[in-house]
Amino acid sequence: MRGKLTLTMDSSVVTEAKKLAYQKKASLSRIVEDYLRTIVHLHGRYPGATSITAPITEGLVGMFPDDGKEYREQLEEALSEKFL
Question: What string of pLDDT tens digits covers the 84 residues of the chain?
Fold first, then answer.
């Protein structure tokens, strides 16, 4: 069964995401679905997910240093620095 989701975000992000989808020969909906499936799978809430990769994440490198810390810990530290 398919569901519908409406997202609101910066128009420049939408434009770049559409370009990425075109380059990957995929729909933007499919890219977002794959990304969300990955996130949910990583949290153990979607048993149907068999992969932890998604096309949208292929270009995401260098977001956090590879210092052996878990992603969640690095994210919490980054958010603490930004908002505290």
Answer: 888 889 898 999 889 989 988 988 889 998 888 888 877 777 766 555 555 555 555 555 555 666 777 777 777 777 777 676
Closest CA to 2 of 19, 27, 23: 27
For the whole prediction, is pTM greater than 0.85?
no
Say if residues 42 and 18 touch (Cβ distance below 8 Å).
no
Q: How far apart are CA 33 and CA 52, in angstroms?
A: 13
Neighbour count for residue 56 (Cβ, 10 Å): 21
C-alpha to C-alpha distance for 2 and 5, rounded to whole angstroms: 10
